[in-house]
Specification:
Elements lengths: L1 E2 L3 H12 L5 E4 L19 E2 L7 E3 L2 H10 L2 H9 L5 E3 L4 E4 L4 H15 L2 E4 L5 E5 L2 E6 L2 E5 L2 E3 L16 H5 L6 E6 L3 E4 L9 E10 L2 E12 L3 E3 L1 H7 L7 E5 L6 H11 L8 H11 L3 H9 L1 E8 L7 E5 L17 E3 L6 E3 L4 H19 L1
Parallel strand pairs: 1-2, 1-11, 2-7, 11-20
Antiparallel strand pairs: 3-6, 4-21, 5-6, 8-9, 9-10, 12-19, 13-16, 13-18, 14-15, 14-17, 15-16, 17-18
Helix pairs in contact: 1-4, 1-10, 8-9
């Protein structure tokens, strides 16, 4: 049985069923793949051409590297296209379905599961998982299900609106597993000052993350101002490295030199047609009428990180079941026949398709390992 009908659970079920294994998927929600249908801002960023373990955080990054070498981004594309559809990269290497619709990727899985005759039981939250005489039994208010092996694919703590509230960790702990403390990742950052007047303003910016005088990370992309801080794809990437007290430096004109900016300002004496009017008002107010400081803020606008917007707004979970407690097939070292896939493990990736790649890679490892065992 596969407990959890998200990306990794559905992929594992398809891979197992294609090998002739009888599979039952137990999903607590009323539909499979709800979180998958929202990925990539609803466009379905399934993986990335520029794949490597350096894009991941884990207690065993070398094990992640070995896993990616066995089931790569190319394997993911071949697997997805074996169910139908065409998947192509954008200029940044992010791979999407040509229709740019994440829900259609979910539909591919649902169709394939149906075609393969996989038993799918929705509305079945597993409250208890035990193994007696080499038989796993999952129980809940809906009843119970027995199987010769169990795959925990129930996700982490991020996006509880989709049913991933962290409750599945207790199922693993029942077999003696530990849980690396969990934190939200790929998440909006709260900042000081909060700049409520810019809520809804979106800019293309270079973002640098500083811890003291040390630059921790730098990237470029969308920055969206929220009521209490910043969001957007650049911020999601930065959030994987950010701690409370770190400093964000935003360059609102990454393609414009300071000299050219100064020349334009000298002609007009203001920021018209340089940055948006709302942002200009905030910059001028903060500069206090000092023109040099005004220009400096256009290229180096500081925001102190005061926290995150929490698991309810996070895309993934940092932490979970440590990889060291599993073998190369992601089977528990503490309980034979118990496997793990996806976000429930202590593996999370940067923004850009890396977390779905881990979902598919881990699913493949389990399917291959189960058949070999």
């Amino acid at each position: 049985m596969v407990i959890g009908g998200g990306a990794s659970g559905m992929a594992c079920a398809v891979m197992l069923a294609r090998k002739g294994v009888r599979v039952c998927v137990l999903e607590r929600g009323e539909r499979l793949g709800r979180k998958l249908s929202a990925t990539g801002n609803g466009q379905g960023n399934v993986t990335n051409r520029f794949m490597g373990a350096e894009h991941y955080f884990s207690d065993d990054r070398e094990k992640v590297a070995r896993a990616l070498a066995r089931f790569s981004e190319e394997d993911t594309v071949r697997f997805l296209e074996s169910m139908g559809g065409i998947f192509l990269p954008d200029a940044r290497g992010r791979i999407y379905p040509c229709g740019r619709q994440a829900s259609a990727v979910t539909d591919l899985f649902r169709r394939e599961l149906s075609r393969l005759g996989v038993c799918v039981r929705t509305g079945t939250q597993v409250r208890e998982l035990v193994c007696e005489r080499d038989v796993f039994c999952a129980r809940g208010e809906w009843g119970e299900e027995d199987a010769s092996a169990a795959v925990l694919s129930a996700g982490g703590c991020a996006a509880p609106a989709f049913g991933t509230d962290g409750s599945a960790y207790s199922l693993a702990q029942g077999f003696g597993h530990t849980v690396v403390p969990c934190f939200p990742a790929l998440v909006q950052l709260q900042t000081e000052p909060s700049l409520r007047g810019l809520k809804g303003v979106r800019v293309d910016a270079n973002v640098r993350l500083l811890r003291g005088k040390e630059e921790i990370y730098a990237t470029r992309g969308d920055v969206l101002f929220t009521e209490n801080g910043v969001s957007g794809d650049a911020v999601f990437r930065v959030s994987s490295y950010a701690n409370t007290g770190d400093l964000l430096l935003l360059d609102f004109l990454p393609d414009v030199s300071e000299r050219r900016l100064s020349e334009a300002f000298d002609v007009g004496g203001d920021l018209l047609c340089i940055v948006g009017n709302g942002l200009a008002r905030i910059i001028v107010k903060r500069a206090g009428g000092d023109w040099a400081k005004t220009l400096g803020l256009v290229k180096r606008f500081p925001l102190e990180v005061s926290g995150t917007s929490g698991f309810s707004n996070a895309q993934v979970t940092r932490g979970g079941i440590p990889l060291c407690e599993t073998d190369e097939a992601l089977m528990s070292r503490l309980q034979n026949g118990l496997y793990f896939t996806g976000e429930i493990l202590n593996v999370d990736g940067e923004c850009g398709g890396y977390n779905l790649q881990w979902a598919f890679t881990s699913a493949w490892l389990v399917a291959e390992g189960f058949v070999c065992n």
